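User: Hi! I'm working on a homework problem where we have to compare a predicted structure to a textbook description. Could you give me the structure for the chain below?
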Amino acid sequence: MSHQQDYQQTAPGQPGQPPLAQPGYGAPTQTFPPQPTKAKKQLNVVGLIALVTAALGFIFACMPGALIVGWILLPIAFVLALVSLFLKDKPKGMGITALILSIVGTIVGVVVFFAVVGSSIDNALGSGDTKVVAPSGDAGATDGAAVPAAEAGTRENPHPIGSVIASDDWRIVVNSVSLAATDAVVAANQFNDPPAEGSEYILVNYSATYIGDDPNGQMPAFVSVEYVTADGRTVNAFAKSVTEPDPIDTTSALYKDGTATGNEAFEVPTATAGQGVLAVRPGMFADKVFVAVQ
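Assistant: Happy to help. Predicted structure tokens:
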């Protein structure tokens, strides 16, 4: 072997030569960053408020007496529900429930509203079956036979004074008619103007009795007594504003079996005052009947 071969060194990493040791270093390790934990969603306060509001609105919408409260709450709940659905990182469950509840509640409220209106119209129209009991003896007696308004009480054949005119809600009796009552009307109040030339005041005294079942009562203003002239013109008590002697109170509520009695004044043509008739309607939707003035 030559001298060159004696001093030849094997390069590190080649076969026959062990790898150089790295003093002070262990096996390499890899550290991974911690996995982020999923944050818990916070309470959706707006959704909760919307849900409570929608629930209350739904309840009130089902109650005819408090229907208006439901109609106020349900739109508010609808808007709040929509707002809650657009809040970031907030649960949507209550908002969705509130949205559905507000829509359903509105539909229910509409149904209840039309049911109430329909019932009111039916009740009102039910009072249209006007019946008249002719007097027998004293004015206002009610022991005569009931006659449907359609068979009598026309302008050509009016009911007599003292007839009892009744609907489901009201009973009206024309007690008396005083023709040529100008002096009495003018003297009743210093501010009463005299009638126009060729006209006179007449006084109609009548009683209105409420016989309906409304727990809140009704005002006699729901009934009407008008004068119809011989040539077919209607004269109501508002045509000439005067204060009658002993006027009837039509603005105070009457309850079941309560009665208001008093006078109403009408300015009518003097020449044909006794030829006119009274048009009496015992209720806003009741049938109109005619009563003679003498």
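For your comparison, note the following. The longest helix spans residues 93-126. The longest strand covers residues 199-210. Good luck with the assignment!
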